[in-house]
Amino acid sequence: KMTQQMRDLQLAQARKPPGPSSPNAAKRLYRNLSGKFRVNYTSFDEGSLVGRGEKEKLRKSYLLQSNAALFEAVELQDLDRVQELLKQYSPEELDLNTPNSEGLLPLDIAIMTNNAPIARALLQAGAKESPHFVSLESRSLHLSTLVREAEQRVNELTAQVVNEAPNTDCSNKEKQLKAWEWRYQLYKRMKAGFEHARVPDAPANVHLSVASSSSVQVTFGEPLSVNSAVVTKYKVEWSFFPTFSPLLGEAVIDKLKNLHFTIQGLVSGTAYYVQVSAYNMKGWGPPQASVPPFAIPSNWREYDGRAPRRRGQAEALDHLLGQVKTVHQHCICHEPCKNQPQSRKHSVSKSLKHLFHPGSKFLKTLKRGLYLTAIFYKDDNILVTHEDQIPVVEIDDTYSCLLMQDFLWFTKVSCMWDEILWLRQCVTVSQSSCSCILQTRFKMLLAISQMQGLLGIQDLGQVFFEPVKDKQGNILIVTLKEVKTNQTFESVRWVPICKLQSSRKSVSSPEEPTALDTLLISIQDKLAYHQRSSHALSPGLYLGYLKLCSAVDQIRVLVPEQLPNILCHVKIRSNPNISREEWEWLQKLVSVEEPVPAEPEAETSQNHLFQELQVAIKELMTLVNIPLQEAKDFRLYSQEVLDFGDQVSFLLLLPPSDDVCTAPGQNNPYTPRSGFLTLPLQIFELGEER
């Protein structure tokens, strides 16, 4: 069969340009071939193609050329071209795991020529080894056959070139001879690479941790030795016993983007021993036991049987809201509004296509008062009225109440954009009291309804964390919403932000800009804040720093500008779970009175957490500009671990009791460096919930 394959290859070689005689000549030929392979088939005149069958045939031909180009790139050890092809095509399009006429896959060539960078790139793309190599003997025999038949072909062509007179046919055979000489050398290198290879060493840094009450996670690295062949898969084994006899289970990992594995379905409170071994073309290497050698599935809540803090809270709040709605449903003040939702279907569009008609009541200039503005943006463009103005509506032109209280109430209303009509009906009941606060809040609800009606959309987005004010007595409450759809809208203008900023004619002086001018000047900062406040942390356990400062009417919390919905923090580790044993050790740690407690025993999860905490505390103190010697007076919050879903958890580091919250006029000797801001505590809580 192999001889027949080689004959087919000879015929194919006779029909195409002969191969190179040296690596440099090979690269020149490869560049020429690659140029042909990169033909853009969409440039052909599709009108001349007959039906879909022709198009599909052309596409398959193009992908076949791409597959050939990948083999050429691997054989010539062209890493850049390999990465380019892997990025341009999917593994299926490249036929990444379909053997060529020699029974080889791209990964086989890479590992047998010991080209680790190309092999790793192929492995991360999902490449496999050839299924024909079921044993070391079969691989060795296959390589010997390739070398022998290539040598035989070289000898035959050499004899023909020597014996024939110079002519065109002889010139072609000389080119074939050079190509076969180069291929003969390639097969010899592959055979030598296989013969000199040895089984891999044990994986490095095998670490075992508790992932939950029913699972453990093992992470590991590539073997440290660089002399063995490329590792193509790993095996994780687990058992009740340190001898691993009998085995409880095993798993083979051949997707090598992330070297970790989670063992699921384990019994809480039971010890499991884990080891990992590596595999290359010479076979499995020795196993490496994990550190610590075993783990017991558990969770910190098992320490005292504590239930999750938020269990059932969302359902309870929905139930309460439903009860409140039921009580107000038959109120007499709601009778005139029963038909309003029906008419609203005609006046409020579900999209933005009827935005900003000339008859709208958006304001162009501000007088003294309280206003609402809604900013919709997409990429670097912003949505404006037909007069190229950011949409603004009036809330109250005689506002004189407590701004912060009303503003914080408004931010809570922003969680219920769909319930504004119902809230208006509820506030109407108490309007006769003529309370300044109730009057203002009713006007806020009216302004929200007006904005929603004019825009034809209910969700106005997220409220910026502080109003925009000027010295003329104007106050702007700003909402921000990103429009991610690519659809076009009628009667709407998307204007580049830079153009809006440059074209606006300011009516104020640079020393005393109006609230609208201030908004336009700082709009990029506000959009950046909005985008960053929706970012999520990657899974893991974090160390957070709680620092508050108080003013006359509010408490503010220190947060990083890059992630304003989360406390200042550093990552401790990628595993978010804290086991029962780790939590028990932490309880003992915070209860001791000695300044330097004894370290836990080596090769335990507690010792690993101790080392991780030391590194995290140093990093966090540097981040918030606090001398490390001051950290001796700081405390770990030991009442609970703050869980944010199943993938993110926090331990809190607290300053001394007197320094947790800085009072007005109190000096803070350690001011954080740039990159931080302080948010009103209620705004931070809302952002955290989002």
From TrEMBL:
<feature type="region of interest" description="Disordered">
    <location>
        <begin position="1"/>
        <end position="25"/>
    </location>
</feature>
<dbReference type="InterPro" id="IPR013783">
    <property type="entry name" value="Ig-like_fold"/>
</dbReference>
<dbReference type="Pfam" id="PF00041">
    <property type="entry name" value="fn3"/>
</dbReference>
<dbReference type="GO" id="GO:0061172">
    <property type="term" value="P:regulation of establishment of bipolar cell polarity"/>
</dbReference>
<dbReference type="GO" id="GO:0005819">
    <property type="term" value="C:spindle"/>
</dbReference>
<dbReference type="InterPro" id="IPR003961">
    <property type="entry name" value="FN3_dom"/>
</dbReference>
<feature type="domain" description="Fibronectin type-III">
    <location>
        <begin position="202"/>
        <end position="299"/>
    </location>
</feature>
<protein>
    <submittedName>
        <fullName>ANKF1 protein</fullName>
    </submittedName>
</protein>
<dbReference type="InterPro" id="IPR036770">
    <property type="entry name" value="Ankyrin_rpt-contain_sf"/>
</dbReference>
<dbReference type="InterPro" id="IPR039269">
    <property type="entry name" value="ANKFN1"/>
</dbReference>
<dbReference type="InterPro" id="IPR036116">
    <property type="entry name" value="FN3_sf"/>
</dbReference>
<dbReference type="GO" id="GO:0000132">
    <property type="term" value="P:establishment of mitotic spindle orientation"/>
</dbReference>
